[in-house]
Write a structure and sequence with these properties.
Blueprint: E1 3-12, E2 16-18, H1 40-51, E3 56-58, H2 65-80, E4 89-93, H3 111-119, E5 127-131, H4 137-150, E6 156-164, E7 181-191, E8 197-205, E9 214-217, E10 230-233, H5 235-256, E11 266-269, H6 274-287, H7 302-305, H8 312-321, E12 335-342, E13 346-353
Domain Beta-ketoacyl-[acyl-carrier-protein] synthase III N-terminal: 129-201
Keywords: Acyltransferase, Transferase
Protein name: Ketoacyl-ACP synthase III
């Protein structure tokens, strides 16, 4: 049975930097629809203390999700040194599709078919799939790619995660300061090498009361248009859910790979809130009865890039792979964990071993 290795990566980080001053004139409301009377300086500073997000990136008005995905994909294809016409599948992870400047979402045609068109791929047997799976979408797309390769349905797959969350946020919601835009991509290939690539994965879907932890909903300002919907999250519920279940899911995946936490060189975890990420990693080590560990095992980008959803992990992977996040790096035989949690609620993790 073949294994799945990453042979190229790419990312696109929008150039528009959005700092805290961007929100100084905002008017914020509570979840109950009441105006928050605290000074914005105080609201924003408290937000930074919890999330550590100082800056985030937004796309330009004339850019779209597929544009970001295209730039990341081109870079990944060039890095892999492959002929794009030989790609068997394009799997595109996104949650809102091709969002216009008015916040209208569009999945017709699909994001993967839009990308295939922009790449100019003529091969009619290059199959396009969209992955709508919350923030864990890119990791789940990589799991799907590995499944297709192990089933010998494909030899070469382009896996993209791209999102434009800045266009689906409520102007009156403090949580809008979390969200950002970006894209990341990898090319994966079938190999006969043993014990390399994706060596273990797991996915959990809790879709009962957890279904409503992260949804689309009308504006917090009740006299706004009630037909227009924005991303809305129950931060407290998500925090509690993530801390309870994500560390266990990661450990289960490491166990499935017949490894110990001491065998893991990096943990690339989805980043929506720095406080939550630190707590999840700490709880993971406590499951192994370890209280003191090297915090460099879990690189962070949220402070400068914000939460770009499906783009977070592939962007971070690409930056480290290309030496752009020193002192972090990847070496041959390194074991790297990818893990994410998000809308659904869904959790996934995989262990990747570099050839």
């Amino acid at each position: 049975m073949p294994n799945t290795i990453i042979i190229g990566s790419g990312s696109y980080i929008p150039t528009k930097i959005i700092g805290k001053d961007f929100f100084m004139d905002s008017v914020f409301y509570t979840d109950e629809g009441e105006k928050i009377e605290k000074p914005n300086e105080e609201i924003i500073q408290k937000f930074i203390e919890i999330t550590e997000i100082e800056n985030r990136r937004y796309l330009e008005d004339d850019e779209f999700n597929s544009d970001l995905g295209y730039r990341a994909a081109v870079e990944a294809i060039e890095d892999a040194k492959i002929d794009k016409e030989e790609i068997d599948y394009i799997i595109y992870a996104s949650n809102f599709g091709e969002v216009n400047t008015d916040g209208m979402t569009n999945f017709l045609p699909s994001m993967s078919s839009r990308l295939k068109n922009k790449l100019g791929i003529k091969n009619r047997k290059t199959i396009n799939y969209d992955m709508i799976f919350g923030c864990p979408g890119w990791v789940e797309a990589l799991i799907m790619a590995d499944t297709l390769i192990k089933a010998e349905k494909a030899k070469l797959i382009l896996v993209v995660g791209s999102e434009t969350l800045s266009r689906v946020t409520d102007a009156f919601d403090r949580n809008k300061m979390i969200f950002a835009d970006g894209a990341g991509a990898v090319v994966v290939k079938a190999t006969d090498q043993e014990n390399v690539g994706v060596i273990a994965d797991s996915t959990i879907c809790d879709n009962h009361e957890e279904l409503l932890y992260l949804v689309n909903a009308p504006s917090l300002k009740t006299d706004e248009d009630r037909k227009k919907l924005y991303i809305r999250m129950n931060g407290r519920k998500i925090y509690e859910y993530a801390l309870k279940y994500v560390p266990v899911a990661i450990k289960d995946t490491i166990d499935k790979a017949n490894l110990d936490i001491t065998d893991i060189d990096k943990i690339l975890i989805h980043q929506a809130n720095a406080k939550m990420d630190y707590a999840m990693i700490s709880r993971l080590f406590k499951l192994y009865k370890i209280s003191d560990y090297d915090h460099d095992i879990a690189p962070m980008t949220i402070q400068q890039f914000g939460n770009s959803s499906v783009a977070t992990i592939p962007t971070m992977f690409d930056l480290i792979a290309k030496g752009k996040m020193q002192p972090h790096n990847f070496k041959s035989k390194d074991n790297v964990v990818f893990a994410s949690v998000g809308a659904g609620m869904n959790i996934n993790a995989l262990v990747y071993r570099f050839p």
